Amino acid sequence: MTLMLFLLAVPTLAAALAAMCLRNLVHAALCAAICFTGVAALFVYLGAEFMGFAQVIIYVGAIAILLLFAVLLTRGFETLSPLRARQVPWPVGVMAALITLAVMTISVVSSPSLLRPRTAMVLRTRQVGDRLMTDYVLPMEAIGLLMTAVLIGAAVLALRDSNGAKRRRVP
Amino acid sequence: MMFADADQFFVRLKATWVALFPGQMQALVSVTTNAVAIVVTFALLFAVTTLLERKGLGRMQNRYGPNRVGPWGLLQPLADGLKMLIKEDIVPTGADRVVHFLAPVTLVLCVILGFAVIPMGHNMAATDLDAGLVFFFAAGAGSEVAVFMAGWASRSKYPLLGAMRAIAQVISYEMPLVLSAVAVVMLAGTLSLVGIVQSQEGYHWGWLARWHVFTPWGLAGFLLFFTAALAESNRSPFDIPEGESEIIAGHMVEYSGFKYALFFLGEYLGLFALAGLGSTLFLGGYLPPLAFLNWVPSWIWFLFKLMMLVSVFIWLRGTMPRLRADQLMEFAWKFLLPMSLFNLVIAGAWKFSRTWSVPGGNLSRWLMGAALLALAYLALSRLFQARHKPRVYRYV
Fold first, then answer.
1. Burial A90-107 (b: 16+ CB within 10 A, else e)
2. Residue B221 lies in a domain
3. Which residues lie across from B208 on neighbouring strands?
4. Is residue B381 part of a domain?
5. Cross-strand pairs, B203
6. Which end of chain B has the lower number of beta carbons within 10 A, N or C?
7. Torsion of CA B137, B141, B144, B146, to 10 degrees
8. Are B21 and B29 in contact (CB under 8 A)?
9. Over 60: is that where the pLDDT of A79 sits?
């Protein structure tokens, strides 16, 4: 079973490393997509099927595509020179990485789920749905509200654009 | 009974084959056998369908279609395959060679994964995952990345344009596709595709099958699913990503030989997967339509329904002109999406009105649901049409 873990973890980490180091931004985004898939595979390996599949749908199907579109639309993929990449002084990067690592470590170590006895648990999708609709209904509704606000905001931004375009059009 | 044997023939064949191997290897052999069976079956079906499509389109356009290779042109797919294999594989000089090569492979891989959860007969699903439907859509998510890879790696204008169009279209139409499937999940109470088929077992009044398509929300959902599936698999009238007359073949322009064939294989396999999912969700999967037809093996029913849907796809390709890109997006966001959301509401009402004592019973429930959906359809199409006045062309 540890062999399986390594087979999943090593490519995931390698893809994450490649996503950071590659000069070509589209290659980096594609490697990020591989990394997302690897994380999803780890979820499935740990018995959280639904989480894994949802991870692929959201991260590979939406976020990776968004990254790729952003790279293409900003034209950063052709003009990237080694000089531009080093504009940020390296201590800042190291500091940011250390802070992120510290926050993540603290939140994992202080999590109450570490104290619970470790039992093999197969999470049925029905249980996830039940919990979301009972115990966690408030967070879910809050996220839903946020998403709706974002959606309306995006529509408003797009609307202004198309009106401007219409005004310019010859009748 | 011979027919009862025929139903479980493949299941038993596999069990006998797997039993030939020693204990530890059996799980591995079982999985490999499933995968090989799926790949071989649907690749053969692909060959048959290309012939069917060319013959059918020929018929609709008043010509013969392929009729030179073999009797009645039956060996045409073989000739096509050979031609594709021995064609020169050209990679553009400026192309990103690795990504250019990986794109068709990724596409076919992602599409084939989707078949793993579709039940093709009694006990004939490769895996029965608890979240099977989510897996299906997750597997499909990778194909968008593959299309992008193909468009970008070719380093050429038309492929990039085609890939952009294809991705925009697939993402837009995924919303109504998933939402119409969610209605089925609500009513069946499970995400497992085997469970969804089992929820459609039995008959109303002893003769009408309990398929979801026979409920008002199911009928509307099926039509929405079918339309969205047409667009998802880039079929006419939604074949803008290919658009032979405008951008030649979209993201596939710079591909030749077997890589091009792989793209076609991926497209047709995606078509089969969506047709199979549609018949599983709404048309009762492998279940027979009438009780006395129970003796026909279940996998024949599945294949029959799948091929019926594929034939309708071909029929539509022969009759419908292509839409414009902006019309296509508007149709997805302003008509299909609100319609599928409303359908979700009706499905919820259907679920909770089960216990109500309505005068007229199920019939009045059915009529109410259908009337509400029809009203929503009329209102939405009015709104949609109001924005689209007949175009006036002025030549200066």
1. eeeeeeeeeeeeeeeeee
2. yes
3. B204
4. yes
5. B209
6. C
7. -120
8. yes
9. no
Beta partners for residue B204, in sequence order: B208
Nearest to B148 among A54, A65, A124 (CB): A65
Domain-located, residue B327: yes
pLDDT in tens, B357-388: 777 777 888 888 888 888 988 888 888 777 76
Q: Tokens standing for A112?
A: 């109450």
Distance from CA of A61 to the nearest CA of B (A): 4
pLDDT tens by residue, B24-82: 888 888 888 888 989 999 989 998 998 989 888 888 888 888 888 888 888 888 888 88
Instruction: List residues bridging with B209 in a β-sheet.
Output: B203
Separation between Cα atoms, residue B377 and residue B220, nearest integer Å: 10
**Side chain identity at residue B157, one-letter code:** K
In a domain, B391, yes or no: no
Indicate the number of domains in chain B: 1
- Quote the CA–CA distance of B14 and A82 in Å, as a whole number: 57
Contact B131 A57 (CB under 8 A): no
Domain boundaries, chain A: 1-81, 136-171
- Residues in chain B with CB shorter than 8 Å from the CB of A26 are 99, 152
Three-state DSSP at B154 gives: coil
Contact in structure between B90 and B256 (CB atoms under 8 Å): yes
Q: What is the pTM of this model?
A: 0.85
| Cβ count within 10 A of residue A76 | 13
The interface pTM score, or ipTM, of the predicted complex is 0.80
Q: Which two tokens stand for residue B191?
A: 């995400």
A50 contacts chain B (CB < 8 A): yes
Which of B99, B138, B190 comes nearest A56 by C-beta?
Answer: B138
**Dist. CA B328–CA B237, nearest whole Å:** 9
Residues of B in contact with A37 (CB under 8 A): 142
Q: How far apart are CA A98 and CA A89, in angstroms?
A: 15
Question: Where in the sequence is the domain holding B343, given as residue range(s)?
Answer: 2-386
Residues of A in contact with B145 (CB under 8 A): 30, 33, 60, 64-65, 68
The three-state secondary structure class of B209 is: strand
